[in-house]
Design brief:
about 475 residues; alpha/beta; eight-stranded parallel beta barrel; two-stranded parallel sheet; about 40% helix; about 10% strand; globular; binds 6-O-phosphono-beta-D-glucopyranose; GH_1_N_CS; 6-phospho-beta-glucosidase; Glyco_hydro_1_AS; glycosidase; 6-phospho-beta-glucosidase activity
């Protein structure tokens, strides 16, 4: 197909500090909420002492090997790399007055390496981690004071990297706090909805303050929010199911509504009242929320269905978002339903709602890879998945949606977030490591490496409309 992607479309991949860097206590880094969840965000808290082992402690050792990895990304033709800064490298406990210079210097080296290859950094301030010190000493985002600590951290990195980083994101998948309170807002998993929404409120204020600070400090910067694009369909055309779907979609769109429109949407008044939730929002908070994002970024992996049928809901309970499976879609090895058309629907919905540019900052297939006898990895399933999704991104662009770029999740194999597995691989680059942490950490190009290189080189013209993994 001819390329429907704009000339300056940013192509690349996305990683997160806690899933690739390792070096979890190196150069003065403090313990993060991710470090105390060695089995992932759904694996519970394991209080740690220095030296305990967990697969993320080394991860893929990106902290030491990033020059080799950036070179491979450049070989694929990346024009953008999304990564995050580990807050604990900069403020190890979270409440210090002065930053940790060794941590700041690390990201200087990383961004300089990317600059060598003209790779634009897209940097998330907080990707599924915060200083554990803030949780233990201050009660995480439940405490209003955390806004001050976060703003100090954000201003520090904006100052430091103002000439190196122009694209920023505030909180990764900010709507996940409802499902993973420790990871999202530094609260215990059994926290009440009242406590979680108050913490979320503090985080939304902090996000807005970061937007303001970014605009003040960095000329020409663009800063976005980051949503888990959890699009839900009604399982049936029953009006009850359609209404319930509207409500459940609002539960995650609420975050975007505040971050893009600068105030709480009207529907949340009833939502909170019905649940006996009463949020303390000060006049100063309301003023702060007026600093809104420049673009909307989101992750997209799957869609789900909503029903008011109690029996079906009972059966579905237990999966991450309590969604009911869609009978029309296949699933990945991990039971995530594959829905390429869903990304086009989601993009149109978001653009209709906000009229702001979108950035797809995560999308990909977690799958088992089996190296052949000669060591090669023929991941045709991954190529099919990505191809089909990108074809739909192209369709959305043709629909009129303004899109800044696409960074696929995990361009190099990394530790999965939900359960800290290594066998769930997303990469174009294979990393020799297993779930127990054995392996040489050697990097190898998979078949998808060359496929993505061709896609980028042709600015999307090499995508195949007919190929289909699903949907
Ligand atoms: C997103 C996160 O939820 O999904 C990533 O932002 C995560 O951090 C990705 O890795 C895929 O999830 P998982 O559990 O397969 O790693």
């Amino acid at each position: 197909m001819n390329s429907p992607f704009p000339e300056n479309f940013l192509w690349g991949g996305a990683v997160a500090a806690n899933q690739v860097e390792g070096a979890y206590l190196t150069d003065g880094k403090g313990l993060s909420t991710s470090d105390v969840q060695p089995k992932g965000i759904f694996g519970g808290v394991v209080p740690r002492k220095n030296g305990d082992s967990g697969i993320k402690d080394v991860a893929i050792d990106f902290y030491h090997r990033f020059p080799e990895d950036i070179k491979l990304f450049a070989e694929m033709g990346f024009t953008c790399l999304r990564t995050s800064i580990a807050w604990t490298r900069i403020f190890p406990e979270g409440d210090e007055q002065e930053p940790n210079e060794a941590g700041l210097a690390f990201y200087d080296r990383l961004f300089d390496e990317m600059a060598k290859y003209n790779i634009t950094p897209l940097v998330t301030l907080s990707h599924y981690e915060m200083p554990y010190g803030l949780v233990c000493k201050h009660g995480g985002w439940g405490n209003r004071e955390t806004i001050v600590f976060f703003e100090r951290y954000a201003r520090t990195v904006f100052q430091r990297y103002q000439h190196k980083v122009k694209y920023w994101l505030t909180f990764n998948e900010i709507n996940m706090s409802l499902h993973a309170p420790l990871t999202g807002v530094g609260l215990p998993e059994n926290s009440t909805k009242q406590a979680i929404y108050q913490a979320i409120h503090h985080q939304l204020v902090a996000s807005a303050k970061a937007v303001k600070a970014c605009h003040e400090i960095i000329s020409g910067a663009k800063i976005g929010n980051m949503l888990l694009g959890g699009l839900l369909y009604p399982l049936s055309s029953k009006p009850e199911d359609v209404m319930e779907t509207l409500q459940q979609n609002r539960e995650w769109l609420f975050f975007g509504d505040v971050q893009v429109r600068g105030s709480y949407p009207a529907y949340m008044k009833r939502f909170f009242a019905d649940r006996g939730i009463d949020i303390n929002i000060t006049a100063e908070d309301r003023a702060a929320l007026k600093s809104t994002v420049d673009f909307i970024s989101f992750s997209y992996y799957m869609t789900g269905c909503v029903t008011t049928d109690e029996e079906l809901n009972r059966k579905a309970r237990g999966n991450i978002l309590s969604m009911v499976p869609n009978p029309h879609l296949p699933s990945s090895d991990w039971g995530w339903q594959i829905d390429p058309k869903g990304i086009r629907i989601l993009m149109n919905e978001l653009y209709d709602r906000y009229q702001k540019p979108l950035f797809i900052v995560e999308n990909g297939l977690g799958a088992y890879d089996k190296p052949e006898a000669d060591g090669s990895i023929n991941d045709d399933y991954r190529i099919a998945y990505l191809n089909d999704h990108l074809v739909q991104v192209a369709e959305a662009i043709a629909d009129g949606v303004d899109v800044l770029g696409y960074t696929s999740w995990g361009p190099i194999d990394l530790v999965s977030a939900s359960k800290a597995e290594f066998s769930k691989r997303y990469g174009f680059i294979y990393v020799d490591r297993d779930d127990e942490g054995n392996g040489t950490l050697e990097r190898r190009r998979k078949k998808s490496f060359y496929w993505y290189q061709g896609v980028i080189r042709s600015n999307g013209a090499a995508l195949k409309k007919a190929e289909s993994s699903a949907g």
